[in-house]
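thread: overnight batch results

M.L. [08:02]
morning all. the overnight job finished for the chain we discussed friday. pasting input first so we're all looking at the same thing
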Amino acid sequence: ELAFPEGSIMLSDGFGKNEPATPAGFHVQFSCSEPDAVQRYWDAAMANDAEIKMDLAVQFWDDFFGQFKDPFGVEWAFNAPTTAEDRKRLKVATKPEFLLVDQEKTA
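M.L. [08:03]
and the structure it wrote out:
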């Protein structure tokens, strides 16, 4: 269950014999109001065997952003805007990861 002030969203795994073995065709994006909330969610996911897809860091567009895949195969992205003070204390990405991936393909 994902609770928020106006209500909640219930999530579940598939049921029935025609359900795919793993989720496909979507990911979940969370936009938080501040980086510390992103860090709390990230830490909880890592403590529960999530696989990092894009490391959590201040990205070139200045938001604190990261992606992971949970043990059920669902891909999650977390994002929060940052202030100048946040950028001084948080890990900063050194190069956009999509550029690194492109370089690996051509090497």
